[in-house]
Amino acid sequence: MLLILGLVAVVATFRGYGISWDEPLHLEYGRRALEWYLTLGQDRGVFEYQNLYLYGAAYDTAATALGELLPLDPYAGRRLLGGLVGLAGLLAVFKLGRELAGPRAGTLAVLLLVLTPLWMGHAFANPKDVPFAVAGAWCTLYQIRILRSLPRPAWRDLVGLGVALGCALGIRVGGVILLAPLALGGRSGWRRRRGGRGSGRNWRGLWAWRRQGCCRPCCWPGR
Length: 223
Hints:
Blueprint: H1 2-13, H2 23-38, H3 58-69, H4 74-101, H5 103-114, H6 117-123, H7 129-149, H8 155-169, H9 180-195, H10 205-213
């Protein structure tokens, strides 16, 4: 029910947000990145536009594609996508809170985030920080599930982690640090296994880390 209400709120308000100071740059970057994909790398204009090619183009490309598919002003399309990404963040926070401390904790976490003006405002206009935070929340959720289900993590969690990590890397290369919990958990289990203590279940986190790497989407144009 809360998810439906959030969707209604996004659809009802996304046109009311203005244009941020650097948004024209990201609009053009997204257009060039989309052309790079559509021409299978033949159109290389994305690498000649200022220094933005040093940043991931996942969000800007998706926003441009959405604007092409829907009868919306390009900036309105970005607002709509931003609101939906912010909504995905609320869902991730709820699931994460529920995973750690039950449904009440998840609901409280969502309410606190909804009442945070910076989150709600930036969700509609910030093409980097909020999408990266959302991807980070999903990465954290899936890593917790994987570590708790070792030595046989569910494939849906591995694929989910791969997609979330790919989205994070497609926004900022620093997203690689989001794998720290899984890497540390796997290393700890591996050391326990070598020392002959415990069941050694968590060492397979390293294998889970390798498998989810195969699921990461290519969200960053490469030279």
